[in-house]
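Could you join me in thinking about how sequence relates to backbone shape in a protein? Label the sequence line and the structure token line clearly, so we can match residues to local backbone shapes. Once you have written the record down, we can walk along the chain together.
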Amino acid sequence: MINILIKDILPIFVIMFLGYMAGKRKVFKAEDSKVLNKLVLTYALPAALFVSIVKADSAMLFDDLKLTIVSLVIITGMFLWAYFSCYKFFNHTKSEAAVCALISGSPTIGFLGFAVLEPIYGATATTGLVVAIVSIVVNAVNIPIGLALMNQGKGSGAPSGGKKSNPVIDALKEPVCWAPILAVILVLLDIKFPVILDPNFELIAKANSGVAVFAAGLTLSSMKFQLDKEVVYNTIQKLVLMPAALLIVGLLFHMESDKLQMMVLAGALPPAFSGIIIGNQNQLYERTGTSSLAFSILLFVIAAPFWIWVTRMVG
């Protein structure tokens, strides 16, 4: 666990701090974060999502239907609950609530999935299976839904007299939306993406997490970090409610112990960086979203060993 904290969690704080100091020292302007986020959202993140998903195969999805069903229902359910609670309880707009759901209703499985699970459970086929399925749910289901809800909340449409656009169609035009969906289609059709072409995507994909975290720090430099009841609620929702729901439903489905443990720990990962990127690029939920990310990463130091202990005890 100490190795995970040093190798995977600490670098997030370091890079975010660099972005924060770059903003405070005027090396970068706060508005420069939008340029960085546009790079990530348009190119780096879609490439990262596509490459991570396309490496799976259809057998993975159907090898353990319990894992697939529980992950899909609970993670998507918690995503929709995050949207509802942000809109109803904290009186945000529908667009802001959609970004909130992309943050507090989605684990950062692409960045920390293997980094956290492999040192604990080994580089096994089961580890790859859990990361692949949770990645598909988060990236190919939650992101398209979130973008569609965000566009709907914005009142996507044409000027008076023009034809009103469809928020779902608008969402599907975004690379961050259609890239993971295309990858899932290829996986379901058992169309193998040529491994020799991976480097063409991986080179830009490697910029994804580092640039996104740096931009989050840069955004935070122009705002005052807030720790209020909403940030605390978002953190509890991500680090407590989601893994707890996965654990309870997984036990009801009599899932195998190892898969249950990995699924719960995957659900307890900090918020997805993709939500921060989308929020900052659209100037939605920036301050609360970035504060929620920072606070959740900090408390993950406690949440991770807690959920490892609980799932091993009951599983």
